Amino acid sequence: MKYKLLTIITAGIILLTSCQSKSQTEKAGDKGSTAQTIQTAGSTTTTPVDVSKIKVADAKTILARKQVPILCYHQVRNWKPTDGKVGKDYIVEIQNFKDQMKMLADSGYHTILPDQLYAYLNTGAALPSKPIMLTFDDTDMDQFTVVRPTLDKLGYKAVYFIMTVSIGRKGKFVDYMTKEQIKQLADEGNVIGSHTYDHKNFKKYTGKDWEEQLDKPTKKLEEITGKTMTEFAYPFGLWNAEGIPELKKRGFRMAYQLSTKRDEKDPLFTIRRIIASGYWSPKTLSNSIKNSF
């Protein structure tokens, strides 16, 4: 009964109200030393950045910096007759996704990862021209089979927020990435972040929820990737100030919501993203990026 309930909950979340980036350090060895990735046309170069030595800036300084566009994707597949109007908002069809990514590349956008964003927000460190962050939520298999090769061709990297309940599962509506695929994404220079166990509303956490939704998923993802989890994405984009200390206590460095106003005290834990709608053409996406950030 529990398994069936989780399956139903997961499928419903994915289709109707899904929440909505190498910001991680090695668990062993030089834990504070990471690589800042800067893309040029069709290639990737890395410059070492020691984020462990970065001092967190005051909120006013962080809020004063120009926001970096961050896109949030869920499923990337062709629409089905059974997909509802709301569900289609979270499902970007394959060719449209490829066209959107080509638009970004043709427009001169360079993908960045959380280490770069963290350094920029706290110290004003330089970013590549027209920086953008691509994030993908909920562990969907198409993120490996469709998204990964599409981004590879452009020299782009991304952040994948994993919901651990779904790892390796095959569902009625969608299949999910395996542990091996998640590790491969991390090994190839992408970032793996935490997206809770089963997408429970962050604003409702009490008691054992912190262990079930944060501690256990973090441990599992660190075992899979061999890297420390430092990035967190709120389910549904919903957050509350009372829960932020719990994220800090567990070593998270930044947390991502959706498009609501950032917290004036903890902007690093209320970083804005916008959902890339399945209804948007590349031109509409371009306009939305400019208007939203």
Automatic annotation (TrEMBL):
One cellular-component annotation, GO: extracellular region
A single MF term (Gene Ontology): hydrolase activity, acting on carbon-nitrogen (but not peptide) bonds
InterPro entries named among the record's database cross-references: Glyco_hydro/deAcase_b/a-brl (IPR011330), NODB_dom (IPR002509), Polysacch_Deacetylase (IPR051398)
Subcellular location: Secreted
Pfam family, one: Polysacc_deac_1
GO biological process, one term: carbohydrate metabolic process
Keywords noted in UniProt: Signal
Top-level division of the source organism's lineage: Bacteria
Domain NodB homology span(s) in chain numbering: 130-293
Name of the protein this chain belongs to: Polysaccharide deacetylase family protein
Species, as recorded: Pedobacter frigidisoli
